[in-house]
């Protein structure tokens, strides 16, 4: 199964004091050999900033090094994804989706990946497909 790793999941893995750390670590280690984890360049950037500001720069460097060594697929948002992200933002005016959220949703739709390793409820709120009847699945 392909699973997109969101910023909150990365942060929970990096910060042992995070309320979600234990669940994140258990999920990640239980699935690392059977599933394919993916992420985006925007998520990496957002995570780097979060880790550097809440933990420290060395922790952010360790995070980036771990992702590099894993040879994980990192999607890059293209113009078509940013336009789709804008359309998502416009279609959900009552939600506080971030640019990273919207671009991630667009990339997930484009690549047909419907699973997310996230603690962000936005993955459960967002709907896509014909008549917006489809939803992503969030783990753990």
Task: Give the topology, please.
Layout: E1 2-5, H1 7-14, H2 21-31, E2 36-40, H3 41-54, H4 57-70, E3 73-75, H5 79-91, H6 99-111, E4 115-117, H7 122-125, E5 127-128, E6 134-135, E7 137-139
Parallel strand pairs: 1-2, 1-4, 2-3, 4-7
Antiparallel strand pairs: 5-6
Helix pairs in contact: 1-2, 1-3, 3-4, 5-6
Distinctive features:
140 residues, alpha/beta, Rossmann fold, five-stranded parallel beta sheet, two-stranded antiparallel ribbon, 7 helices, globular
What can you see in these coordinates?
By secondary structure, the protein is of the alpha/beta class. It has one domain (2-75, 112-139): 5'-nuclease (Rossmann fold, 3-Layer(aba) Sandwich). 55% of the residues lie in helices and 16% in strands. The protein has helices at residues 7-14, 21-31, 41-54, 57-70, 79-91, 99-111, 122-125, and strands spanning 2-5, 36-40, 73-75, 115-117, 127-128, 134-135, 137-139. The strands form two sheets. Strands 3-2-1-4-7 form a five-stranded parallel beta sheet, with helices on both faces. Strands 5-6 form a two-stranded antiparallel sheet. α1 packs parallel to α3. It is globular.
């Amino acid at each position: 199964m392909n699973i997109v790793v969101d910023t909150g999941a990365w942060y929970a893995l990096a910060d042992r004091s995070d309320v979600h750390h234990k669940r994140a670590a258990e999920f990640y280690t239980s699935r690392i050999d059977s599933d394919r984890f993916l992420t985006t360049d925007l998520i990496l950037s957002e995570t780097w900033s979060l880790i550097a500001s809440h933990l420290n720069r060395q922790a952010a460097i360790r995070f980036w090094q771990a992702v590099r060594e894993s040879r994980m697929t990192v999607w890059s948002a293209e113009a078509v994804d940013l336009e789709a992200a804008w359309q998502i933002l416009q279609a959900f005016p009552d939600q506080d989706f971030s640019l990273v959220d919207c671009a991630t949703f667009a990339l997930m739709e484009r690549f047909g990946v419907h699973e997310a390793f996230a603690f962000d409820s936005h993955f459960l709120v967002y709907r896509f497909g014909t008549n917006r009847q489809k939803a992503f699945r969030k783990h753990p």
